[in-house]
C-alpha cells in the first residue's frame, strides 16, 4: 500500500513537472491531485522518494524534480501505452497514405513524428541487409556503360553505373538481366554471393568480362554500409528546452549531427519488440546524457527492417510520446506491406 501511494506521488510529480517545467512542492500536489492522504503524509512520501533517489531538490526551499531514476520507474510502471484518439489516428493515416514512394514515406514520417511529439524525430530507411531482392534491371546507357538498378521488397531503390572495358551488346545485357532475375529474385542479401557462383558459366568467353564487372558492382552495392540512411526533422524543437540541458544544448546538437551516433540510437531498437525508452545516462552516446530517446521498430511482413524514434529532454510526456512513436511505426509497417502488395 505504501509503495503504491509513493508511486502515485511520484507519478503526480512527473506529470506536473512535465507540464510546468517547475519544481513541484507538497502544497501543489495537495491542491492539484486527489491523493487521498494528508499533506504531512505526502511530505513524508516525498522525503522517502528523495532518499531513494527518485526525486531531487534542485535548490534550497524549492520543490522537487524527478531524477532519471524517477523517470525510469514512472515509465516502467506504465500499465500500457495509452492509445491515440480516433482523430489523431485518422490524421496520421491520411498523411502517410498520400506518400507516392519510399522516399516520400520516409520524409512524411519524420516530419509527422516531429510535429505530433514536438521533439526531434529520426527515421531510418529500411536496411538493405534486412531486405530481399524483388527486381534487378540492367539498362545500356552508352556503348560501354550500363545502369544497374536494384529494387528491394521494402521499396528501396539502389542504382549504380557500371563502366565496361569493351563495348557491350544489348543481347548480352538482356540475357544477363534475365539470369540475374531468376537467380536473385526473393533472395536475401546474404544469399546473393552463393546464388551468383555459376552465373557466368552459360556466357561465351568474350561476354564474361561484362558479367564479371556487373557482378562485382552488384556485390559491392550489397555489402556497403552506405545503405544505412537516416532522416531527421525537428531539431529546432530542442531550442525550446534549452534550460533542460545542464551543459547547454550544443553537445546534443553535435551528437545528432553524427551519422554513426544516429545509427547507434536506432540500431538496437530494430532488434527489440515494442517501444524502447532510454532515459538520461542510459543513453550510450556522449552528448545525449540529458536527453531521453524513445524508439520503435517497423517491419515488412514479419521481418523488422528498421526503426524510428524521437530525442528530447528527460522531462517529456512519456505516455503521449511513446504512443505516437508506437502508432507511427505501425502505420509505416502497414504502408510497406500495402505498397508491396500493390506491385
Description of the structure:
With 343 residues, this protein is α+β, with helices and mostly antiparallel strands. It has three domains: 75 residues, Winged helix-like DNA-binding domain superfamily/Winged helix DNA-binding domain (Arc Repressor Mutant, subunit A, Orthogonal Bundle); 156 residues, GAF domain (Beta-Lactamase), CATH 3.30.450; 98 residues, 2-Layer Sandwich (Enolase-like, domain 1). 44% of the residues lie in helices and 19% in strands. It is built from twelve helices and ten strands. The strands form three sheets. It has a five-stranded antiparallel β-sheet with strand order 7-3-10-9-8, sandwiched between helices. A three-stranded antiparallel β-sheet has the order 4-5-6. β4 and β5 form a beta hairpin. The radius of gyration is 26 Å and the shape is elongated.
Short structural summary:
The chain is an alpha+beta fold and 343 residues long. The chain has three domains: 2-76, Arc Repressor Mutant, subunit A (Orthogonal Bundle); 86-127 and 228-341, GAF domain (Beta-Lactamase), CATH 3.30.450.40; 129-226, Enolase-like, domain 1 (2-Layer Sandwich). The chain is built from twelve helices and ten strands.
**Alpha-carbon Rg, integer:** 26 Å
Average of the residue pLDDT scores: 85
**In percent, how helical is the residue content?**
40-55%
Runs in which pLDDT lies below 50 for 5 or more consecutive residues are none
Query: How would the global form be characterised?
Result: elongated
Amino acid at each position: 500500500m505504501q509503495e503504491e501511494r509513493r508511486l502515485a506521488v511520484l507519478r503526480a510529480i512527473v506529470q506536473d513537472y512535465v507540464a510546468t517545467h517547475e519544481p513541484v512542492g507538497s502544497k501543489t500536489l495537495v491542491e492539484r491531485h486527489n491523493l487521498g492522504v494528508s499533506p504531512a503524509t505526502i511530505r513524508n512520501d516525498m522525503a522517502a522518494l528523495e532518499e531513494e533517489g527518485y526525486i531531487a531538490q534542485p535548490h534550497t526551499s524549492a520543490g522537487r524534480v524527478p531524477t532519471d531514476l524517477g523517470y525510469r520507474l514512472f515509465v516502467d510502471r506504465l500499465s500500457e501505452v495509452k492509445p491515440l484518439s480516433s482523430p489523431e489516428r485518422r490524421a496520421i493515416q491520411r498523411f502517410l497514405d498520400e506518400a507516392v514512394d519510399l522516399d516520400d514515406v520516409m520524409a512524411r514520417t519524420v516530419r509527422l513524428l516531429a510535429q505530433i511529439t514536438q521533439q526531434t524525430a529520426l527515421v531510418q530507411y529500411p536496411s538493405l541487409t534486412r531486405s530481399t531482392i524483388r527486381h534487378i534491371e540492367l539498362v545500356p546507357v552508352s556503348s560501354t556503360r550500363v545502369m544497374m538498378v536494384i529494387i528491394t521488397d521494402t521499396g528501396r531503390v539502389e542504382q549504380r553505373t557500371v563502366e565496361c572495358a569493351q563495348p557491350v551488346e544489348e543481347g548480352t545485357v538482356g540475357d544477363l538481366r534475365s539470369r540475374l532475375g531468376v537467380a536473385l529474385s526473393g533472395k536475401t542479401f546474404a544469399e546473393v554471393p552463393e546464388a551468383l557462383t555459376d552465373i557466368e558459366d552459360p556466357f561465351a568467353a568474350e561476354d564474361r568480362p561484362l558479367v564479371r564487372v556487373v557482378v562485382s558492382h552488384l556485390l559491392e552495392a550489397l555489402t556497403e554500409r552506405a545503405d544505412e540512411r537516416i532522416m531527421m526533422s525537428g531539431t529546432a524543437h530542442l531550442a525550446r528546452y534549452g534550460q533542460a540541458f545542464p551543459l547547454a544544448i550544443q553537445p546534443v546538437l553535435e551528437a545528432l549531427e553524427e551519422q554513426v551516433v544516429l545509427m547507434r540510437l536506432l540500431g538496437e531498437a530494430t532488434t527489440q519488440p515494442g517501444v524502447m525508452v532510454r532515459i538520461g545516462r542510459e543513453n550510450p552516446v556522449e552528448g545525449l546524457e540529458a536527453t531521453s530517446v524513445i524508439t520503435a521498430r517497423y517491419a515488412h511482413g514479419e521481418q523488422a527492417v528498421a526503426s524510428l524514434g524521437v530525442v528530447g529532454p528527460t522531462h517529456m510526456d512519456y505516455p503521449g510520446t511513446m504512443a505516437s512513436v508506437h502508432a507511427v511505426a505501425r502505420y509505416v509497417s502497414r504502408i510497406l506491406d500495402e505498397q508491396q502488395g500493390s506491385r
